[in-house]
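fyi for ur records
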Amino acid sequence: MSDEELESTNVKDSKSYPQEAGTIRKNDYIVIKGRPCKVVETSTSETGECHFAAIDIFTSVKLEDIVLSSHNCDVPRVNCTDYTLLYIFDDGFVSVLTENGTTKDDLKLPTDEALLTQLKAGFEEDKYIVISVMSAMGEEKIIALKEDGTKGGD
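which gave:
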């Protein structure tokens, strides 16, 4: 890649960015084994090695890594976006209204039973539902919802 191509690359478009391991703390995000994770525990040894225990934000699998504190780790770009729920399909996906007025039909129903039950109940009761979707490294997951009366304005 030429210098000109590198300069024109938008850094915000990358799925992760480097951060010095010694600056990463509990509740920060980190990439371990190619997966976006939230750090649940961190410690630094006398030899300067950082030990990270983290939970994959999409699969809830616990992952661990050891990195020299002066070396860089990848940190995922994590975003949270709110969408208006339009429809729940029988195939396990939902249709939502995006901020720019288009529909998005590729979001899977949540795997969390309590959230799934609340989402389906609100939809069946014709409530106005806004879902919060976490996205990172090309994956998305419904993480929360808010109900606000019925769609008819009752």
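The domain at 79-150 is CATH 2.40.50.140 (OB fold (Dihydrolipoamide Acetyltransferase, E2P)). thats all i got for now
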